[in-house]
Amino acid sequence: MDVYTDGACINNGMPGAKGGMGVWSDDLKIQISAPWLEEDVLPTNQRCEMMAVAIALAATESVEDEIRILSDSEYVVKGLNEWVPRWKNRGWTTAKGTEVKNKWLWETLDGLRAQRSVTFEHVRGHVGIHGNEQADALAVMAAEGLNS
Question: How many Cβ atoms from other residues are within 10 Å of residue 116's Cβ?
Answer without folding.
Answer: 14
